[in-house]
Amino acid sequence: MKKHLKKLSQLAVMGTALVTLSGCSLFGEKVTIEPASVGKVLTKNGFKDGTYGPSRFRLDPCLMYCDRLITLDASDQPRFEKFQLFMPKDQLSMNFDLRMTVSVDMDKIDDIYNRVPAEKGRIDILKVYQTYAQPIIRDVARQIMAEYSINEVASSRERISTELQNAIASALTDTPLKLKRLGLADVQFPDIITKAKEQAAERREQIERERAQFEIQKITQERELAQAKMQRAIDREKAEATKEVNEILSTSVTDKYLSYRALEVLEKMAESENKVFVPVEALGTVGLQQALFAEQTKKTSKQSAN
């Protein structure tokens, strides 16, 4: 009995080894579909209907012809295209990039599996992009950009980006890829255009400086004018005041008033010890003036001797 069981065990081991060596599996191969990927099972008669999302499972058991899992990257793909385009309106060449995000159209997965060959059980999404999307994107972008001048591109980049996105998205509707977003980027204008823009910017800056200087001069001159007007008003008021005083004096100072003031002076002089009485009429004579000068000289000499 023991010999019989041992023989059966040996036969089972040999059978398992033969199955393994022939590439077949009685329990089905374990397979995995990574996140952001899809998979289809390839049988000897073609792909099974339907797709599998991220998961782990076993393929059907097989003896001679075993199924295989073919996966495809279904994640959003960032792509960019570089262009050097001759601009007909300017007769100049301009460089620019298109940066975009594309993804697989899940309703057209079967088109990819039926037309793009897999390598080592996986379809390269870059090959899908290069086959279906890249030629269309480059052709549509060239057609649209060639309609604009370089100055229009510089001043309307956002609007042109929107136009490109709409046109390319529409052109890709018949392909298994779809466009999610697109933008015009890294625009490099010809040197002659760049220098012209720099010179224009310098001119604008110079104009702004001159305008600012003019405003400063204007304010300064307005201040000086206001000060001059104020000074003239002050001088005019002073002149009018002086005129009024003179008019008052001319009408109020009479001969009688002057005689009265002379008597007041004589009264004050009479109260002083150092006094000499001289008739008022003689004050203007030359002889009295010489006498007064001689008297004053004597007093000065005595004070110096003492």
From TrEMBL:
Localization per Swiss-Prot or TrEMBL: Membrane
Q: State the annotated membrane topology for this chain.
A: Single-pass membrane protein
Looking up Pfam families in the UniProt record yields:
Band_7
Q: Which UniProt keywords apply?
A: Coiled coil
Gene3D superfamilies for the chain: Band 7 domain (3.30.479.30)
Listed under GO cellular component are:
membrane
Q: Which residues form a coiled coil?
A: 193-236
Q: Which residues form the Band domain?
A: 33-216
Q: Which InterPro entries match?
A: Band_7, Band_7/SPFH_dom_sf
| Designated name of the protein | Band 7 protein
Instruction: Please tell me the species this chain comes from.
Output: Alteromonas sediminis
